[in-house]
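Budget justification aside, the reviewers requested a transparent look at the raw inputs and outputs of the sequence design task funded under Objective 1. We therefore reproduce one unedited record. The lines immediately below are the structure tokens for a 336-residue chain.
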């Protein structure tokens, strides 16, 4: 067991068989982070004294310059000795439900489109989460964990459901789609993430999802539907895919109380020609453009949640900035 001392906050915590970031979050410390998989760089800290080793040597958020400056990624660094470090801490990052490591057994799957499948797991140790959060899945045969967002809502956290899009040539998704069978168990760790539904903020909600971003937005819509504090609010859900065969999600929203009166679903495709076999008479365009066209000047009145591939997230971010939506009203976890 190693002890990590945060020199800039006069806090020390134990780190045993864990990364520095996750050990801190498990102990209620608000260590800054976002993706948890070595890509964003938000969790970078400075090593003042001691020795650490990185899980992932090729992490995109860690460059030669960082190495030379003795900067490491909290989500990838494991201590080899007691350490003294300097890191960004904010109350905002403290976990409402502290992340736990447990085993999850797959009990059901459902295909949602040609390349999106819902995987439903039952946990050995129940772990509650907030709508919009994600977990790390250790897929057998794959090096490193992958992050996936839960799509269900839960009080006790006995089940975690994930809507996962098959990535072309992807290591984890190939195993999940082609090898993992009902009855199999995997290791999971969570919940993580800051893009959860703010039930204490009485604003209308705008959910923007593209492709793999469906899962956390469905969870947010489900929690919104049952939230007493948001009972007089409206939710607009814009879902984008390339062609008609990529569009899904409506049946899940249709089953919610308030669908059609205060919960609205707006699908859009960006490249209808990519699916010549299915006719499409709905909206054509990218989700950020559809949101702008639909709500225009009214956008700053919304609490906005979004998830999807990096290009979509960047386009949404730019549009929200141009439309003067305050940054504090926009919530997303970048998917890498
Ligand atoms: C916060 C977050 C939430 C996400 N939620 C969803 C979701 O709900 N649904 C969904 O379909 N996708 C989601 N993703 C994307 C998902 O995590 C995977 O990137 C995607 O499924 C492709 O994985 P793959 O292994 O099949 O593809 P690959 O191309 O084999 O792997 C791609 C990803 O794995 C990372 N990676 C590679 N090696 C390692 C390693 N050693 N350790 C850790 N990471 C490594 C890469 O940086 C890249 O991000 C989310 C990503 C993030 C960051
Ligand atoms: S690189 Fe560690 S949280 Fe993103």
């Amino acid at each position: 067991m190693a002890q990590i001392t945060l020199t800039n906050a006069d806090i020390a915590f134990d780190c045993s068989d864990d990364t520095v970031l996750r050990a801190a979050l498990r102990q209620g410390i608000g260590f800054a982070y976002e993706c948890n998989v070595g890509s964003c760089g938000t969790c970078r800290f400075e090593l003042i004294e001691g020795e650490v080793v990185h899980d992932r040597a090729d992490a995109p958020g860690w460059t030669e310059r960082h190495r030379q400056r003795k900067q490491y990624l909290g989500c990838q660094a494991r201590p080899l000795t007691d350490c003294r470090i300097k890191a960004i801490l904010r109350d905002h990052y403290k976990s409402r439900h502290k992340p736990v490591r447990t085993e999850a057994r797959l009990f059901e799957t459902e295909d949602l489109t040609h390349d999106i499948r819902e995987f439903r797991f039952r946990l050995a140790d129940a772990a509650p989460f907030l709508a919009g959060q994600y977990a790390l899945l250790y897929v057998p045969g794959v090096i490193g964990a992958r992050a996936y967002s839960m799509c269900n809502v839960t009080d006790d956290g006995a089940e975690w459901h994930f809507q996962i899009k098959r990535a072309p040539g992807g290591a984890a998704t190939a195993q999940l789609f082609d090898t993992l069978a009902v009855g199999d168990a995997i290791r999971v760790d969570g919940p993580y993430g800051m893009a959860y539904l703010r039930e204490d903020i009485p604003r209308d909600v705008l959910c923007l999802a593209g492709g793999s971003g469906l899962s956390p937005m469905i969870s947010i819509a489900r929690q919104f539907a049952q939230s007493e504090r948001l009972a007089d609010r409206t939710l607009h859900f814009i879902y984008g895919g390339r062609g008609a065969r990529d569009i899904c999600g409506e049946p899940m929203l249709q089953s919610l109380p308030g669908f059609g009166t205060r919960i609205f679903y707006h699908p859009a495709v960006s490249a209808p020609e990519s699916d010549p076999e299915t006719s499409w008479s709905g909206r054509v365009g990218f989700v950020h453009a559809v949101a702008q066209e639909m709500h225009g000047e009214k956008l700053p009145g919304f609490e906005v949640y979004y998830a999807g591939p990096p290009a979509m997230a960047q386009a949404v971010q730019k549009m929200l900035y141009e439309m003067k939506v305050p940054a504090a009203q926009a919530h997303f976890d970048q998917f890498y």
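The longest strand covers residues 100-111. The mean pLDDT is 96. Computational costs for records of this kind are itemized in the attached budget.
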